Amino acid sequence: MLSPIDIFARSPAEPASWATGFDRSVLTIPRPHGIPTCSPCVPRRWLRVASHRTGDVVSERAGNGLPQLTGSALEAVGHRGSHLQIIASAGAGKTEVVSQRVVDLLAEGVAPEAIVAFTFTARAAEELKNRIVQRVEGRLGKAALDRLNGLFVGTIHAFCFRLLQQRVPRYETYDVLDDNQLTAFLSREANRLELRQLDPGNRLFASIAAFLKAVDVVENELLGTDPLPDPVKSVLHNYYETLDRYRLLTYGQQVVRAVRELERPAFAADIHATLRHLIVDEYQASTRRRNGLSSC
Ligand SMILES: Nc1ncnc2c1ncn2[C@@H]1O[C@H](COP(=O)(O)OP(=O)(O)OP(=O)(O)O)[C@@H](O)[C@H]1O
Ligand SMILES: [Mg+2]
């Protein structure tokens, strides 16, 4: 059975290191002016697509006010039964395709709670949300907006936090630290965490900066603390312990913890029972940590 990874939409700039060993069709929307857009590392099905920006599309708006998709863009909206990766240049219509796909699934009768659409920044999430709302209203009518309860559209972090809070009892009472709050937390806890040993000059903010850099690598690569040398290992260990004691999650930890939970087969099966369509926009912004989440 397929896991509910459904659609990945990304710009072509990044090499698709994650694209191996994955049952996935590839759909490309060609960059205007014929510049090739498909990464050579994606050896999958190749479909020629008409983008609205190539001039191939005559009618831009259908009667319901929705941008009229054609060719492979339309095919991506209606694609069912296997994973699909969309690679297209900036402005080619990726968000449009994934938004219309969400609406298409809803129109088909898929339950809102079976669909999760996420992206990586608050701004991109806001854009995706607005686009989906407009397309739902355009195709299904205003009343349909009241029936979207359970549909998740947002950032990957918000999705992970919701997953943890709703499904893992110990996270019910956790709060999230944003980046500024995290810096304040580190400066407050610096002595207890013995942070200054990470800077040869023993300076507070330089050691915080060095620490945050290390945390980023460790969490993006899902490394865990075991393979690390001291003093980074011991500082990180204390850091996670302290965050847990205060019942706090950082942005990075939200995803790491969700991935960890999803690695438990029973937990993953529980999620897969409801979630049937996972749609990811801006997939090029993804890291190993985030890829780990999508492939669970
Ligand atoms: N077939 C179409 N006909 C008319 N307008 C379209 C079509 N497809 C997309 N558009 C419009 O073109 C604009 C750019 O599309 P969109 O934001 O989906 O591109 P994108 O590939 O996601 O861009 P980015 O790389 O910046 O994320 C949007 O206003 C969208 O509604
Ligand atoms: Mg987009």
TrEMBL record:
It holds the Pfam family UvrD-helicase. It comes from the Bacteria. ATP binds at A88, S89, A90, G91, A92, G93, K94, T95. Residues 67-296 form the UvrD-like helicase ATP-binding domain. Signal peptide: none annotated. The keyword Lipid metabolism does not apply. The keyword Hydrolase applies. Keywords: ATP-binding, DNA-binding, Helicase, Hydrolase, Nucleotide-binding. This is UvrD-helicase domain-containing protein. It comes from Micromonospora globbae.
